[in-house]
Design goal:
alpha/beta, 5-stranded parallel beta sheet, 10 helices
Length: about 200
């Protein structure tokens, strides 16, 4: 049996989520979602309670919902992915042994490029570390310094687009935990993370 894991908030469940699940179900026997509970990553209270969101996820095609503990759900992307000490979303999927692969959306839609970027970020070359330090000391923000330092090695959109950033953090979490879970991406269509219009 092939089981796919996804990490989500479903705050609220929308057509993009349904599209992702439908795409996964073309190649997978079951979908397991690790979902934020009453609070979501940006520090907001979820629009609806976790029980209603879990029920909607199940109605939308998810086969099992596992709650991501709030102390990890409220973290920035690296800790959201790994949960600090062995307890984040990726770790839950890995330690429970329920998933063969982890599927996530990305603006890039190219898993090989995201994996390469994650590997570079996880094993940062010393000359890149020095560049980042120099740029930050010169007044540049850390994200901009990171993007500039890696400009010859990693396409800038991987380090600047929100879902690409989260995707690389999921892959880094898989690398750190030496997980057998395979990372896979689904390209996001139409509405972007910051778009104000619905499609």
């Amino acid at each position: 049996m092939n089981i796919t894991g996804i990490i989500t908030e479903y705050n609220i469940f929308h057509n993009g989520h349904k599209y992702q699940i439908d795409e996964i179900k073309k190649h997978s026997d079951a979908v397991v979602a690790v979902m934020s509970g009453s609070f979501v990553q940006r520090g907001d209270v979820a629009i609806t309670d976790k029980w209603s969101r879990a029920k909607t996820a199940l109605s939308g095609g998810v086969d099992l919902v596992i709650e991501l503990p709030v102390c990890y759900a409220l973290n920035a992307a690296p800790n959201f992915a790994t949960g600090g000490i062995n307890m984040g979303a990726v770790e839950i999927l890995d330690k429970t042994g329920v998933a063969d692969c982890l599927v996530f959306g990305s603006e890039r839609g190219r898993g090989d490029e995201l994996i390469r970027a994650a590997e570079l970020l996880e094993d940062e070359p010393p000359h890149i570390s020095e560049k980042i330090k120099k740029y930050v000391m010169g007044g540049m923000s850390y994200p901009n310094a990171l993007t500039k330092a890696y400009s010859a090695l990693i396409p800038s959109d991987i380090l600047s687009e929100p879902n690409n950033i989260l995707a690389t953090e999921y892959i880094r979490a898989l690398i750190r935990s030496d997980s057998k879970i395979k990372p896979m991406t689904v390209k996001r269509h139409k509405a972007g993370y910051h778009d104000r219009n619905l499609y």
